[in-house]
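2024-03-11 09:14:02 INFO worker-7 job=invfold-0412 stage=load source=structure_tokens
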């Protein structure tokens, strides 16, 4: 049996000191942690995408008014005040970046990954999106147009990736398991049906 990792020990020590000094309430920290573990995150976005894959009416609504369509599934709040959905097709692949900082649709994607906030990603994806995608393992045909969208504090973006082949007749729940966080940013693709679930 292994004990907590070094970062976990540091977090616990910091929490203890801040609690003893009266700067934080442990119960409030638990609520925040639970919010990001259970209520906010890529599993929400995966449900949105799976619904769009299964329901043409919802897909149309999502592309016309992402904020309302996403809120109808119960996802809204800080970082999700205005969300625009863009759809990948055989002709167009969309990629999201925030060139100024790290604006990100928290209600549907959770906390942004460290690489999304990094200066190299923020600058390179604009200049060489195909190269950045290739480094992420996404190889697209040469004639596929790559559109890079700049997320802002006013409008956050969500990519609706292409539905993998071989998933006809799948339920929303089954489809949601194929949707990855990176596929909703555009730097990855959904899992293939034959890939094992994590």
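2024-03-11 09:14:09 INFO worker-7 stage=emit residues=198
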């Amino acid at each position: 049996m292994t004990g907590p990792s070094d970062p976990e020990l540091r977090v616990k020590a910091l929490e203890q000191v801040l609690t003893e000094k009266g700067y934080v309430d442990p119960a409030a920290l638990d609520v925040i942690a639970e919010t990001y573990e259970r209520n906010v995150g890529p599993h929400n976005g995966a449900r949105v995408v799976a619904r769009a894959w299964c329901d043409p009416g919802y897909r149309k609504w999502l592309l016309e008014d992402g904020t309302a369509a996403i809120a109808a599934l119960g996802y809204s709040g800080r970082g999700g005040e205005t969300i625009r959905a863009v759809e990948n097709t055989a002709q167009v692949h969309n990629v999201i970046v925030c060139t100024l900082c790290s604006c990100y649709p928290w209600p549907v994607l959770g906390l942004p990954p460290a690489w999304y906030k990094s200066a190299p990603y923020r600058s390179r994806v604009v200049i060489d999106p195909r190269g950045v995608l290739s480094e992420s393992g996404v190889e697209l045909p040469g004639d596929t147009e790559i559109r890079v969208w700049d997320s802002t504090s006013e409008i956050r973006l969500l990519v609706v990736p292409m539905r993998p082949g071989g998933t006809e007749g799948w339920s929303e729940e089954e489809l949601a398991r194929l949707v990855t966080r990176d596929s909703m940013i555009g730097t990855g693709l959904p899992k293939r049906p034959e890939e094992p679930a994590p």
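2024-03-11 09:14:09 INFO worker-7 stage=report msg="The mean pLDDT is 91."
2024-03-11 09:14:10 INFO worker-7 job finished
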